[in-house]
Design a protein that fits this description.
This protein has 16 helices and 2 strands. The protein is an all-alpha fold.
């Protein structure tokens, strides 16, 4: 015991020391930003799965009850088991971020945000308690309430509502940091310009993410399964997860465009930074990654049908070629320089065929919008064609190649989540609260946001 006390005493002494009075400076600030950014990314990757499982799990249980399919019930039960295991990991990271890193590095900022967003954070705390409680009840009462399925599904419905509200309260805080409104008006705080599109965007993203994630998990379990019944279940569940993930992702181009439009209207400097500034190469990577995800999913559809000789594999191969061409169009940069300002400063803001560094085919309107439309239309056609061929599929006969694709989809989705989070959080720079508080020194400012020229 004395050895344990001697080991932890230095750590307790550091925790008892006075917190720094100023925000990190210079290289220390960069290190602090990297630490917080890395942990937040890890937290979001785990919390997004937990939140998505809390919303999709009860829906799958209800679907199984309506269709009287045991596979759905088994899948929903597995998602409940996942939630009970991984709540603690996500919570531990969030507590470390809030109580140590944010308070220690940017204490003035965090105190300000808690003061402004006290009600959303208060509600978030209680919805989190409700979410955790309902998740454990939903999972552990599965067998005891099997004869009372309606009651059990009602508990699942409450879990889905609590999961949504918990994320929504966090989104109010995150959206306020990008598009701040009058902090003394709770209604305007909750309905700030980017609150609604961010909530829809993130909810759909979490639902897609959990689909791709349990698809990848089932792929791993399929490769390790020896029982034909288990192989058939994991083959089916992997396909279902991918289908669900693609169906949710199909809505993201429309929701994402709406979100970007609100940022343009209410935080123009952030929008400009994403489209023409230092974040434009990363935004270009994001739209390219979306195409890669649709291509990968279409390849799975085609391979899975071809394995069992089901109809439609050839047409799906053509669709993947169409998606590849669309991705090449979407990946074209508008300015052939790091930022548009660099190109303009060099006097080269003219088309490349006139000796400049501007590529008109890389402009957002109309070309990238057209690319997003073709992404959506071709992916919808791929999903429909895959569903048409499913009656010819024998579950349990999939090959290793299809399982690798399912695992790759989960990795691509994680890359997409981290990329989108990086863009959103860094678009506010040099502000912690857009136009209100700077990162450097946590200084309050009343400088207005730049507005677009008429």
């Amino acid at each position: 015991m004395s050895a344990l006390i001697a080991l932890i005493a230095p750590a307790l002494h550091l925790l008892a020391a006075e917190l720094p009075s100023q925000a990190p400076q210079g290289n220390n600030r960069l290190a602090a930003q990297a630490a917080i950014g890395s942990l937040f990314s890890l937290h979001i990757l785990i919390a997004g799965l937990v939140s998505g499982a809390g919303e999709i799990g009860p829906a799958i249980e209800f679907l199984g009850f309506v269709r009287q399919r045991r596979r759905y019930d088994r899948l929903a039960h597995g998602l409940g088991h996942f939630m009970t295991l991984y709540f603690s990991f996500s919570s531990a990271i969030a507590i470390l971020l809030i109580t140590v890193l944010l308070v220690g590095y940017w204490g003035h900022f965090w105190t300000t945000m808690v003061t402004i967003g006290w009600w959303p954070l208060f509600i978030e705390a209680w919805t989190f308690v409700l979410q955790v409680s309902l998740a454990y009840i939903w999972y552990y009462a599965w067998e005891p309430l099997r004869a009372f399925k309606g009651v059990h599904m009602a508990i699942g419905g409450l879990l889905a509502i609590a999961s949504f509200l918990q994320v929504y309260m966090i989104d109010i805080i995150a959206s306020y940091m990008l598009t701040p409104t009058n902090p003394q008006n709770p209604l305007r705080l909750a309905l700030n310009p980017t609150s609604y599109p961010l909530t829809v965007h993130r909810t759909i993203g979490n639902l897609a993410y959990i689909g791709f994630a349990f698809g990848a998990f089932c792929a791993i379990r399929f490769l390790r399964a020896r029982n034909p019944e288990d192989k058939a279940f994991y083959d089916w569940a992997g396909s279902f997860g991918l289908l669900w993930g693609v169906a949710m992702t199909l809505m993201q181009p429309i929701v994402g465009y709406s979100y970007a439009k609100e940022i343009q209207l209410h935080s123009y400097s952030s929008w400009y930074k994403m489209m023409f500034g230092t974040l434009s190469p990363i935004f270009l990577w994001q739209i390219t990654l979306l195409g890669i995800m649709f291509i990968t999913a279409t390849l799975y559809f085609g391979r899975r049908l071809r394995t069992d000789g089901a109809r439609g594999a050839g047409l799906l191969r053509l669709m993947s070629v169409g998606l590849l061409l669309t991705t090449l169009l979407a990946a074209m940069p508008y300015h052939l320089g790091f930022t548009y300002a660099d190109v303009a400063a060099a006097g080269l803001n003219r088309p490349f065929w006139e000796g400049g560094l501007i590529n008109p085919l890389g402009s957002m309107i109309p070309w990238k919008v057209l690319a997003l439309m073709f992404y959506t239309l071709i992916a919808i056609a791929a999903v429909v064609w895959y569903l048409r061929g499913l009656p010819g599929v024998i579950w349990g006969s999939a090959r290793r190649g299809e399982q690798r694709i399912l695992m790759l989809m989960a990795v691509l989705t994680m890359l997409m989540i981290v990329t989108m989070g990086f863009i959103r959080e860094n678009s506010r720079g040099p502000f912690l609260i857009s136009g209100e508080m700077t990162i450097q020194g946590q200084q309050n400012t009343q400088n207005p946001q730049p507005t677009p020229a008429p």
